Amino acid sequence: MIDATKADRVGASIRAASKSYGHFRALDNVSLEVAPGEFVSILGPSGSGKTTFLGLLGGFVQPTSGSIWLGTRDITFEPPHKRDIGIVFQNYALFPHMSVGENITFPLRARRLPKSNWADKLQGALDMVELGGFESRRVHELSGGQRQRVALARAIIFEPRLILMDEPLSALDKQLRESMQIELKRLHRKLGATIVYVTHDQREALTMSDRVAIMNKGRFVQIDTPEQLHDHPADSFVARFIGEATLLPVTRAGNDTVTLGDAVLRTSRSVPQGKALSLAVHSEKLVVADDNAPHASNRLSGTVTETLYQGESIRVFLKLSSGGDLSLRLPSNHAGRLHLKKPGEPITVALHPEDTIVVPDAP
Amino acid sequence: MTISIASPSDSHERSEQRLMLLLLAPALLVVGALLIVPLGWLAWQSIWQDGGFTIVNYQRFLTDSVYWMTFLQTFRIAFVVTLATVLLGYPVAYVAAGLPQRWSMIVLALVLLPFWTSVLVRAYAWLILLQRTGIVNSALKSAGLIDSPLLLVNNEFGTVLATIHILLPFMVLPLYATMKKIPQELVMAGSSLGGSPLHVFLRVFLPLSLPGMIAGMVLVFVLTLGFYITPELLGGGRTYMVSMLVSRNIQVYNEWGAASSISVVLMICVFLVFKLASLLIPFERIIGTR
């Protein structure tokens, strides 16, 4: 059976790693500590250095400087096949000339493990990904989701000390992707494995991870829990990348106040000094101001420019009288519809100081 | 309203098919006139002599030892050449496929360079290099490695060597094309799963490059079977290949029937080689359309 006992669990540690290609710095002094059994996602737009980071951990890319540790072992210069890291590749990278069973037992053969154990291990791995009875199928006979599971089984059968996943769900359709997310979480709990998960899908990262490391231009901008990232973004890049935030330039007026045009906004967080600032407004945090809105809320007025019916919610776009565009969501229920204005009508929205997020502009 | 009326799309499709046939016609005509008809005439000649059917031309394959000795030598040479081009071409293709585009193009250009000179020129070049007083022998002699010159040419060795040189691109190119199509991720996956470089090569890369190798082998083997100029110039009369047998029968003995029968038998041999290879991989992959 596949079972990672607590003693087997190790963390991974990337210490001040850089990678340059000529003058281009693909990775710029990145550090990340992954605790044993933790699920950490690397989230960033394409070209941010995610793939290089993955290559660094997998052993396909040598760092220009810095080191990589697996538990207490320095693996910076160890070749991939000695690292004991299971990798699930974006396009699964299943061997087309082998059956499902041969694919999954490849790590056992490569490690010259005694053949007597193979059957049990194969059965365990197939059960784990719910593909019992598929061992003699050919790879090309499988659906995308099934290939995904085979790749997963192949990466866990040798009980690796770390599992890397490179956008493993990006090739699947939305529905399958969501069910695989839940399944991967279940698998993570069951195996207790340490997982580093690379993705460009923020919702996927927020749903699955213990912590998310946001990457931009070869650096980690913020490494935090999903909730912290959403509610306390480190800068405008994170705020823009996580959730549906609209950014508006503001200027510092005091320790807890900023000005947006001629409106003064209060925030319950301290306003950073000496930097260009932006107000990050999540559409779900804006409410249409009526008499029920808390008195302490910041109020912004403008004109409705467009409304979009999106099924479970209605998105309202508005232009502020001080300039700048915002949007908010109204639930598409009766109460929500009461607040609905037509394009061209004036509207006042409220933003609670707790939800008034002021971030420094990203460099 | 009648149902039997063809829909507009049907008639459109038919007129399109007519146009396609029209476009194909010149090519079909050329192939028909210059290939099918002469081949038919060739086969006919081997069985029709002096106003009657005869099998005497084919009987000679059983009775005349020159015939089957020649076929034997031809197949032996083809086999050795094929084996040697695999051993020489595989590493070249492997390196070229692994290099960045710019460098791999340079390697392939070097492989293809000999293509731009005629077979005749290349045969004479080998003659100059390999003859008793040639560059190779005099270099070895002055280095003190040999006392008397080695017999490097005017024999089977010289023929095989020059044939390998000429046919190497036919091995390298299909191999390269196949290797280029092997996703790099499969090799990366293999090594991440614990496979040593050798293990990954033997279990992943080699099996996936096999179609290209078989394609190259078939091409080289079949082309060698029909080689003429190279054995004629470098064989020194000791190397006797099938094509030379054909030419002798026409030029020396004016025996068109005998020459035709040899050609027909050689053609059947080629078909058999293709048939054999197509059991291993689909024919489309041998000629590179897939």
TrEMBL record, chain A:
Its EC number is 7.6.2.11. Pfam families: ABC_tran (PF00005), TOBE_2 (PF08402). GO terms for biological process: putrescine transport. Residues 12-242 form the ABC transporter domain. One of its GO terms (molecular function) is ATP hydrolysis activity. PROSITE patterns: ABC_TRANSPORTER_1, ABC_TRANSPORTER_2. GO terms for cellular component: ATP-binding cassette (ABC) transporter complex. InterPro entries: AAA+_ATPase, ABC_SmlMolc_Importer, ABC_transporter-like_ATP-bd, ABC_transporter-like_CS, Mo/tungstate-bd_C_term_dom, P-loop_NTPase, PotA-like, Transp-assoc_OB_typ2. Belongs to the ABC transporter superfamily. Spermidine/putrescine importer (TC 3.A.1.11.1) family. The complex is composed of two ATP-binding proteins (PotA), two transmembrane proteins (PotB and PotC) and a solute-binding protein (PotD). This is Spermidine/putrescine import ATP-binding protein PotA. It comes from Rhizobium loti (Mesorhizobium loti). The lineage of its organism: Bacteria, Pseudomonadati, Pseudomonadota, Alphaproteobacteria, Hyphomicrobiales. The gene is potA.
Automatic annotation (TrEMBL), chain B:
It is a multi-pass membrane protein. It holds the Pfam family BPD_transp_1. Belongs to the binding-protein-dependent transport system permease family. CysTW subfamily. GO terms for cellular component: plasma membrane. Residues 71-277 form the ABC transmembrane type-1 domain. InterPro entries: MetI-like, MetI-like_sf. Its main location: membrane. It comes from the Bacteria. Gene3D superfamilies: MetI-like. PANTHER family: ABC TRANSPORTER PERMEASE PROTEIN (PTHR42929:SF5), INNER MEMBRANE ABC TRANSPORTER PERMEASE PROTEIN YDCU-RELATED-RELATED (PTHR42929). This is Putative spermidine/putrescine transport system permease protein. The chain crosses the membrane at residues 21-44, 77-99, 106-129, 157-179, 200-229, 256-281. It is found in: Cell membrane. The keyword Ligase does not apply. One of its GO terms (biological process) is transmembrane transport. Keywords: Cell membrane, Membrane, Transmembrane, Transmembrane helix, Transport.
